[in-house]
Specification:
Blueprint lengths: L1 H20 L11 H16 L2 H21 L2 H18 L3 H17 L3 H17 L3 H18 L4 H17 L3 H17 L5 H17 L3 H14 L6 H17 L3 H14 L2 H6 L1 H155 L5 H12 L8 H15 L3 H9 L5 H6 L9 H40 L6 E4 H9 L3 H5 L3 E6 L5 E4 L1 H18 L4 E10 L2 E8 L6 H4 L19 H11 L3 E7 L2 E9 L18
Parallel strand pairs: 2-4
Antiparallel strand pairs: 1-3, 4-5, 5-7, 6-7
């Protein structure tokens, strides 16, 4: 529809502009006979309408331009430029060229103070921009043309009318229907004030209203408007208007699916035009006729279907009444039959009921015997479970013993190595000390006292220590072995030596540093001995705690204390810094249980997490109180439990460990212990996250206050 509007707008513009700029009859530019002859030849060529005639018309327009230049008349030059632009506009050959010539004409009309024609040129540019799809630019030129008419105050109604007409079509193309409605009101006002409007203007106004109503989807109003117009048109005098109106009516009838009227109306329009044009309507006539006949056939079919459906409904009603009557009779006969049959069955059921009562009594007696057998079996199973639990506890003790042996061997090895080091270097220290005491400076004696009384060490990593040693050797020009000793004493730079007033050029500097290094090494060895002894003592305390609590009765126990003691047996993993431990547990949460059972639960879950993570990952243990229950969550970032094991992970002898690493009883026993404590255990597992959640009843006197548990340092 938009393409149709642009084509209609262009055709209207060309005819209007040609009549507006023509000087054949009115000679508005006061041309002399020579100029008038040139203009008449141009108009003759343009009227022919062929490509050769248009090319010839451009030649005459150029002659008119040369003529105007000799006369130095801006009005005539503007007219010549406008004529050239009209040719390019009409043939759509080069629309940019048309805009160029219209703009030149506009500028010259401005110089000649011919504002109405300057406004016409702006309107012409707007039409071409609309063809090119540059709607916003076209709108600006229409507004500029209207502003020029307002400024001129001498613009004729036709200038205003046709400019508003084109502007309305642009607003419709831009879907700005509200603006189009306002512009239409202005156009109607101008038409009413026009003293003697031509018939073409009335036709244009009608087409404009129809365009706007079409865009608004008001097809019935369009039809009413065109039908009223059609009645008032004298087909003899307004032949073209009559055919145009009939064609538009035909299209609108088709839009509202009234193909019969669409066909009849287009047929009337075809009878009024020449044979060639009549043939061009044949395709549309055939399409409308086909649609109309299809609708008529469809209506006939609908009528026939309705009649058939009515007859069918009547037949169905009669059939239904007959069937219902037969069914009622059959139902009555069946009811009588069933009554007799029911009486017979009732006597049989009474006899059967007596027999069933006797069988039920026998079954109850047998059930009582089976109940006693089941109770006996249950007692046996419970004893077996207790045996299995004790076996698993023994296995846990064995595992704990292995860990304890490892924990004891490590500090004992450190003690042995440090003791041998102390014994090996003691005589060398005394010999160096007696030799140097008499020649040391006060600053050196002070630094020696500082080292002798201190047990601090840098604890640098190997890479950093090597880098510092190289820098020290380069800065102080010393061998790497000697520079390494200085770095270990925090004397790895000239600045550090100056701070302690030590002279590296002193003849006894090397002996002094060796003495200080030996003393510092022995101090560190003594510190390691003390730490190892404390660690050994801690392991022994853990053994005593575990042994003392193995047969402990259930009581209110503190979860935080039990967890701290349990974590001690996993020091080797946490000390390696490969397992990152995160704890959050309140200080005062207590449950009613034995310490051994709770320690076993923690041990099993922590062991499983460390095994799943292959000794490297993140382990998180969180405890909170909620609704008189302790919520314990143990979570790791291991690969997760295999999907095929998740449904039976708490069953006995189910494990994902290889042979020799576990028998699959840990989680089974853990679940049984938790159930004896009136608690529950559940889990969620996927790739990268496995979380076990334990819920235990709080001890009655527990009032937890959540505080974060700091991870204790482990040597």
């Amino acid at each position: 529809m938009f393409l149709f509007l642009i084509i209609l707008l262009t055709a209207t513009f060309n005819s209007t502009f040609a009549s507006t700029t023509s000087s054949t009859n009115s000679n508005p530019h006061n041309l002399d006979p020579q100029g008038l002859a040139i203009l008449e030849k141009y108009d003759s060529c343009y009227a022919i309408g062929t490509m050769a005639a248009f090319n010839q018309a451009i030649i005459y327009a150029q002659k008119l331009l040369n003529y105007a230049k000799t006369k130095q008349d801006n009005n005539i030059m503007a007219l010549a430029y406008a004529k050239i632009g009209l040719i390019y506009d009409t043939i759509n050959d080069d629309l940019d060229q048309a805009i160029y010539y219209y703009q030149k004409s506009y500028e010259l009309y401005q110089l000649a103070d011919n504002l109405p024609r300057a406004g016409i040129m702006q309107s012409c540019v707007a039409v071409i921009l609309t063809k090119q799809g540059k709607y916003s630019q076209a709108e600006k030129h229409y507004q500029k043309a209207l502003a020029i008419y307002q400024e001129a105050k001498k613009a004729e109604p036709k200038h205003w009318f046709f400019t508003y007409r084109r502007y309305i079509s642009l607003a419709i193309v831009m879907h700005n229907l509200a603006q189009a409605r306002k512009l239409l009101q202005k156009t109607e006002e101008i038409f009413r004030q026009w003293p003697h409007p031509p018939a073409s203007a009335a036709q244009e106004l009608l087409l404009t209203k129809v365009e706007l109503l079409k865009a608004e989807g008001k097809f019935q109003e369009c039809i009413q408007l065109l039908e009223s117009r059609n009645k008032n048109i004298d087909s003899q005098k307004e032949y073209s208007a009559k055919t145009t109106t009939l064609k538009q009516l035909s299209e609108l009838y088709a839009k509202v699916n009234n193909y019969r009227k669409a066909y009849d109306t287009l047929l009337k329009a075809s009878e009024m035009v020449a044979i060639g044009l009549k043939n061009s309507h044949t395709r549309e006539l055939n399409a409308y006729r086909a649609q109309w006949e299809a609708e008529r056939k469809e209506e006939i079919i609908k009528t026939q279907k309705l009649e058939i459906e009515t007859q069918k409904n009547k037949l169905l009603l009669v059939t239904a009444v007959g069937i219902i009557t037969i069914l009622l009779l059959l139902t009555l006969a069946y009811a009588l039959y069933q009554r007799k049959k029911h009486q017979k069955q009732l006597s049989q059921q009474n006899h059967e009921l007596k027999r069933l009562n006797q069988e039920l009594a026998e079954a109850l007696a047998e059930l009582q015997e089976n109940k006693e057998e089941l109770l006996s079996s249950l007692i046996t199973i419970q004893k077996q479970q207790e045996t299995i639990i004790e076996t698993q506890k023994i296995a846990a003790i064995a595992s704990l013993s292995a860990n304890i042996a490892h924990e004891l061997n490590t500090p004992l090895g450190v003690i042995l190595s440090a003791s041998q080091q102390l014994q090996a270097g003691q005589e060398q220290i005394y010999e160096s000390l007696f030799t140097l005491l008499s020649i040391l400076s006060p600053a050196e004696i002070k630094f020696l006292q500082h080292i002798a009384l201190s047990s601090e060490s840098q604890n640098k990593n190997i890479k950093q220590e090597r880098e510092d040693t190289r820098e020290c050797a380069q800065e102080l020009n010393l061998p790497l072995s000697f520079a390494r000793k200085l770095v270990s004493l925090n004397l790895g730079s000239q600045q550090a030596l100056d701070e302690h007033q030590l002279d590296k050029n002193s003849p006894h500097f090397e002996s002094f540093i060796n003495l200080v290094y030996n003393i510092a090494s022995k101090n560190i060895a003594l510190k390691n001995i003390i730490l190892s002894i404390n660690q050994t003592r801690k392991v022994i305390e853990l053994i005593n705690w575990f042994v003392q609590n193995r047969k402990e009765e259930a009581s209110s126990i503190n979860l935080k204390k039990v967890l701290e003691n349990t974590l001690s047996q996993f020091d080797a993993f946490f000390k390696s810094e490969k397992v990152e431990l995160s704890l959050k547990i309140p200080d005062t949460i207590e449950v009613k249980a034995s310490s051994t059972d709770i320690a076993f639960i923690f041990t099993q879950l922590i062991q499983n997490s460390i095994f799943a993570m292959q000794g490297e990952g993140k382990l998180s243990i969180k405890v909170r109180a909620e609704d008189r229950q302790a919520i314990i969550i143990v979570e790791d970032n291991g690969p997760g439990i295999a999907p095929n094991l998740q449904d039976k992970i708490f069953q006995p002898f189910v494990t994902n460990k290889s042979e020799g690493q576990g028998i699959g009883m840990g989680l089974y026993i853990t679940q049984k212990i938790i159930e004896t404590l009136d608690g529950t255990i559940s889990f969620e597992s996927r790739e990268g996250k496995t979380s076990f959640t334990i819920v235990l009843p709080l001890a009655p006197t527990t009032y937890p206050s959540e505080t974060k548990l700091e991870i204790p340092e482990r040597a």
